[in-house]
Design a protein that fits this description.
Chain A is of the alpha+beta class. Chain A contains three helices and six strands. Chain A has a domain at 40-111: Alpha-Beta Plaits, CATH 3.30.70.20. In chain A, the strands form three sheets. In chain A, strands 1-6 form a two-stranded antiparallel sheet. In chain A, strands 2-5 form a two-stranded antiparallel ribbon. Mean pLDDT of chain A is 86; it is low at 1-18. Helix content of chain B is 35%, strand content 24%. Classes of the chains: A alpha+beta, B alpha/beta.
Chain lengths: 116, 436
């Protein structure tokens, strides 16, 4: 499962070489860390069918488009779904409705925006 | 089935759902609002700007109690290309708040704003069922007669259901009203709310306490995405974001959050945010299908409003005003249907009439061709910023060339970038789609 990186781990290069980002939230892990969640015990994102092979073009598209880095290639070369990262935008079900079943988290669970 | 306990169930407590619930409750109807967040606003996000003309009819004097950030007293449009930026802006003292009334528009943060507006619905007498997902519509002989929820025994009968579900209108789609939009008609926006000391923010942006600015930034700052970056000043935060079509990111091999980081660190943006603290990151979809993709707006026992009904004018970053106005109109039409005891599409047809007579369907219709045009002609968003900045650079560079010669060179350079016929044809087409 994709975990959060330490805040001081600046592994994302900015344009302009080693210049630090303009705020403390530079990497996606740091950005996701700013969002409040109440996670339900169960995932709200499932793969439709058994084909989780990373060679599937749809998964690569999700890796680029998903703004919360939910869709990653696992160590076994298969799709790994880090659903705890989800910010509930719905991009995945628009892009890959035949491969990903994305529903709202159970009522009252999931993200809790303080600002929005 | 006996008489339903509720005249109307409203799905969602965003701008559309709240507008509908307030209108219905003020009209004396028994309304239940179903919201999937633990509290209204927690699931919601936009840029964002609201417009007083659409909110005033729903909550008169809203500006005295709503959690507004800043009046929008100046709107700016920037175009970046390489190391250049062309800036165009408009400020008007009439845009400010006065003793007589509200400002033209305000920046808001949706979590506190939606919570406030749902509170207005409650004050008017609407009931709120939070932490509940509407999973389907209850149907009887083709009529909508209530909603199914994710609660045990969670079926809720109602005379009329109004969908203010937002862009992911799963319950409506499942019941056959509208459908999942095509990826080519959906934009993804990512955003951060960045905190600055109020004095620093006001000095950097050149705004006083009762003033605010918006900036929409086009050109190569989006790195090829069909969209724009934005900066909106709040009280002591800045909303900064960028959008593109959901398909752009894989096509360009560019992660949405890395694009946002590049926008934050772009030379025209970074000095404004330096030293700030990101309070919250988020992302949201915008349905841009518009007029040609509209779902059925009026059905037996059922009305669709706001983003669920694709009511967005992406070109003018308008959406909240469509949501407020369509929610209010749905509420008004539902009151008429309840009064006349005709819950059919015919009894609810006042909704369609109101939409047609207002800016909502008029604007959606006149902007019908704009989005497909820019989607098919992405070169316009890439070529013209360069032509414009090249021309302005040449004009403002003092290098000993006589002005008359400069003007000749400029025209030559423009026609070198675009042949005269292509330029004329582009201008004509842009005028056709934008000038309607």
């Amino acid at each position: 499962m994709a975990g959060f990186r330490q805040v001081n781990d600046s592994s994302t290069d900015n344009e302009g070489g080693d210049a630090k980002g303009v705020t403390q939230a530079t990497t996606i892990e740091e950005k996701l860390f700013t969002i409040n969640h109440d996670h339900h015990a169960e995932t709200h994102i499932t793969c439709i069918g058994d084909d989780r092979d990373w060679g599937n073009k749809a998964f690569e598209a999700l890796q680029w488009a998903c703004p919360a880095k939910v869709y990653e290639k696992g160590e076994d070369g298969a799709l790994e779904i880090g659903w705890e990262n989800c910010i509930e935008c719905g991009t995945c079900q628009i892009l890959a409705p035949d491969h990903i079943l994305w529903v709202f988290p159970k009522g009252g669970f999931g993200i809790r925006n303080a600002h929005g | 089935m006996g008489m339903p306990a509720f005249d109307a169930v409203v799905i969602g407590a965003g701008p559309a759902g709240n507008a509908a619930a307030i209108t219905l409750a003020k009209g004396g109807a028994k309304v239940l609002q179903v919201e999937r967040g633990k509290a209204p606003g927690e699931k919601n996000l936009m840029g964002g700007v609201i417009y007083s003309s659409s909110l005033s009819p729903i909550v008169p004097n809203f500006w005295q109690s709503a959690p507004l950030e800043r009046p929008v007293t100046e709107q700016n449009y920037w175009v970046t290309d390489g190391g250049s930026v062309a800036k165009f802006g408009f400020a008007d003292s009439a845009f400010a708040e006065s003793e007589d009334g509200p400002a033209n528009a305000y920046t808001v943060l949706r979590a506190p704003f939606d919570k406030w507006m749902a509170g207005e619905a409650k004050k008017a007498g609407a009931m709120l069922l939070p932490a509940t997902v509407v999973t389907d519509l209850l149907m009887e002989e083709g009529r909508v007669v209530g909603v199914a929820t994710d609660r045990p025994n969670g079926e809720i009968p109602a005379k009329i259901v109004i969908s203010g579900e937002g862009v992911n209108a799963f319950a409506s789609w499942k019941a056959g009203f509208g459908k999942r939009p095509d990826p080519s008609e959906v934009a993804l926006v990512v955003k951060e709310v960045i905190e600055l000391p109020q004095g620093v923010l006001e000095a950097r942006f050149g705004v006083g306490a009762g003033e605010g600015k918006t900036f929409e930034i086009f050109g190569d700052i989006t790195q090829g995405c069909l969209g724009y970056a934005f900066l909106y000043t709040n009280k002591n935060t800045v909303s900064v974001g960028v959008g593109g079509l959901v398909t752009d990111f894989a096509d360009l091999k560019l992660a949405s959050y890395e694009l946002l980081e590049n926008v934050k660190n772009h030379s025209v943006v970074r000095p404004l945010l330096e030293g700030g603290k990101t309070l919250e990151y988020g992302g949201h979809l915008i349905p841009e299908g518009g007029y040609t993709s509209l779902p059925p707006l009026v059905s037996d026992g059922f009305l669709m409003t706001g983003d669920a009904a694709l009511m967005v004018n992406a070109v003018h970053r308008e959406g909240s005003n469509f949501a407020f106005a369509s929610g209010r109109m749905a509420g008004e039409a539902a009151l008429e249907a309840i009064a006349s005891d005709d819950l059919s599409a015919k009894g609810l047809s006042g909704y369609r009439t109101r939409l047609e007579d207002s800016f909502i369907l008029k604007d959606l219709k006149s902007y019908e061709g704009v989005f497909p045009f820019f989607r098919s002609r992405r070169d316009i968003m890439e070529d013209y910023p360069a032509i414009m900045t090249d021309a302005l650079r040449s004009l403002f560079t003092v290098d000993g060339t006589a002005k008359g010669q400069k003007k000749k060179d400029l025209v030559k350079a423009v026609f070198k970038a675009k042949r005269p016929l292509a330029l004329l044809s582009d201008l004509y087409k842009m005028w056709r789609v934008l000038g309607k």
